[in-house]
Amino acid sequence: MEITDQKQGDIVVISVKGRMDAISAPEFEKDLDARIGQGQMRFVIDLADLDYISSAGLRSILALAKKVKTGEGMLHLAALKEPVKEVFDISGFSSIIPIFDSVDTACS
After folding, report:
1. φ/ψ bin of 102: left (φ > 0), alpha (ψ from -120 to 50), beta (otherwise)
2. How far apart are alpha carbons 29 and 15 in whole angstroms?
3. pLDDT in tens, 19-48
4. What is the residue-wise DSSP string for the chain?
5. How many domains does the structure of the chain reveal?
6. Among residues 80, 81, 45, which one has the least CA distance to residue 62?
7. What is the span of the domain harbouring residue 13?
8. How far apart are CA 48 and CA 101, in angstroms?
């Protein structure tokens, strides 16, 4: 898994590429925990290049959502591929975390 970021105003756009599974999800969580520790609380997670997400990946995103909500921040997901979106729909996560078609709409 590869994680990159860019700022759009006060929002940090995190792009995730590859697979988010039991091996890579802890890396994602550690990266986002560090950002929260630095005071960043507004995130858009760009999943356009995410090919696969496991239950461990879902748990990491849910943990992030809880931390951001506690700090009155924002978490939006953007540009999910159909197989990844299906996992979010089946798990019920799409009703918990806002999902947008593009990063631009998620940031506005």
Report:
1. beta
2. 14
3. 999 999 999 999 999 999 999 999 999 999
4. -EEEEEEETTEEEEEEEEEESTTTHHHHHHHHHHHHHTT--EEEEEEEEEEEE-HHHHHHHHHHHHHHHHTT-EEEEE---HHHHHHHHHHTGGGTS-EESSHHHHH-
5. 1
6. 45
7. 2-107
8. 9
The per-residue pLDDT for 10 is: 92
Say which CATH number the domain at 35 has: 3.30.750.24
Give the number of other CB atoms < 10 A from CB of residue 3.
Answer: 16
What number of CA atoms fall less than 13 Å from residue 79's CA on the CB side? 18
Mean pLDDT of 49-54: 96
pLDDT > 90: percent of the chain: 95
